[in-house]
Known about the structure:
Blueprint: H1 2-13, H2 18-62, H3 68-92, H4 94-112
Amino acid sequence: MIGLVTELITAVSSNNGPSQHRRHEERRIKDRKAAVDVCIIMAAFLICYLPEWTDFVLHYFFKIEFPSEATQTTRCIYYISSMTNPIIYSVRKREFRGGVKRTIKRIVGLCAI
């Protein structure tokens, strides 16, 4: 609340007008997008790693045995996590998509030789 009041006082007292407000708004939007990206990445990390680590902890510390299918499934989810970050970044970040496209074109160009 105090931060909001301070921002309002600063905005009113400055004579820079709309351009400063627009820059502040653009920065706020970028910060919000970054926060959403971090939340998505953390959720993907937890979804992928939590089953494997739960299986590991319960098996080694408490000697609880799970069916082999369950262990194999958690291990597959664990390995799939390696693919999640590039997918998330390519969906959420335009610059990353461009870099991936350029890299694939270079690889295809080298393979064509």
